[in-house]
């Protein structure tokens, strides 16, 4: 007889965390409440490193009340890419979704992504650009302008046809996740671009789906992150040209 631990997990939700003690609790409870009412198995994995607050302690405490919650301490570095990579490779789910700790895209939006796997897609990503009417709270104008201008370059240099590479709500089949994230080299904000560039290179089918998005005015992402991401974009382009990815 198959035990609970031997059953295949249907959905893994990976949450990278850094100084999230004020937001991680409500996010975990919201995600668990939603998934608990589904007829499929799931796990929630929080990957943390570098925090100077009580994020790690809080998440570990939540594992007592949320049985499907796992806490991981990132071993390879403190950047978001490190955390998502380690979470994706440690996950057990048939499908593996990473989302942000601020719940900017509500977990309910996963219901829009999952059906596309039955249509043969292997990478299904949330997008703020396909239908901007779904953006409930916008970023400041200058951030949106920088994001749109940056996407023009991103499409030209690395990921043609994808309107929003940076939305933190992306889902992968287990095979695609293992293949793509095991090759990841960019760990800063540009890791999303490299993930999609690798997916293109390895011929995975990608679907971009409009999702609800709510900007958090308390976001810790600085405006300088846009310029760091552009530097990483040129590195990704160089890697593609020199066939570093194989």
Descriptive overview:
- By secondary structure, the protein is α/β, with parallel strands linked by helices.
- The protein contains eight helices and nine strands.
- A seven-stranded mixed β-sheet has the order 3-2-1-4-7-5-8. A two-stranded parallel sheet has the order 6-9.
- Helix 5 (141-157) packs parallel to helix 8 (224-241) and helix 7 runs parallel beside helix 8 (224-241).
- The longest helix is centred in the C-terminal third of the chain and has 18 residues, at 224-241.
- The radius of gyration is 17 Å and the shape is globular.
- The termini are far apart.
Q: What is the gyration radius calculated from CA atoms?
A: 17 Å
**In which range does the helix fraction lie?**
25-40%
- Strand tally: 9
- The main sheet orders its strands as 3-2-1-4-7-5-8
What is the average per-residue confidence, as pLDDT, rounded to a whole number? 90
List the total number of helices: 8
State the separation between the terminal residues, measured CA to CA: 43 Å
Shape: globular
> Biggest sheet, open or closed, and with what strands and sense?
7 strands, mixed
Strand content: 15-25%
Q: In terms of structural class, how would the helical and strand content be classed?
A: alpha/beta
- Note the run of SSEs as H and E: EHEHEHEHEEHEHHEEH
Runs with pLDDT <50, length 5+? 1-6
